[in-house]
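input
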Amino acid sequence: MTLNIDFFDETDSLEERDTALVEDLLLFASKKEGVQNGECSVTFVTNDKIQEINKTYRGKDKPTDVISFAMEDEAEGDLAVIGADIPRMLGDIVISVQVAKEQADEYGHSFSRELGFLALHGFLHLLGYDHIKESDEAVMFGRQNVILEEFGLARS
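output
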């Protein structure tokens, strides 16, 4: 097994095909990224909920599209976990369904494409990718585009 994903739809608005697409995409991405044995969660929330999370953890009092909480941020001097049988706890991805729908309309593509994009973006953050610096952004967004294209969710 490469990746175990727990899904939580707090909005009760997604269809089974939506979560199936996200699951298939993240399994595909985990293989591309060499994740051997990992676990993560994906939670779909309302704008009010993601705004509360954004305010609490990022100091920004507004809704956003996706927030990730990585569990494996190793600081210098940290000991690495030993034991290949223990799944890597990658972390949690939180996605606003409302913002995903709004952005799909704004960018002129399907809700499925936007949901996949946001889930993959959050997943790559769990793996240590970031886009604070321009050079890191180029690497992360480049990787994102390659995975989405190979999976079949490229921008049309």
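quick obs: The chain is about 45% helix and 20% strand.
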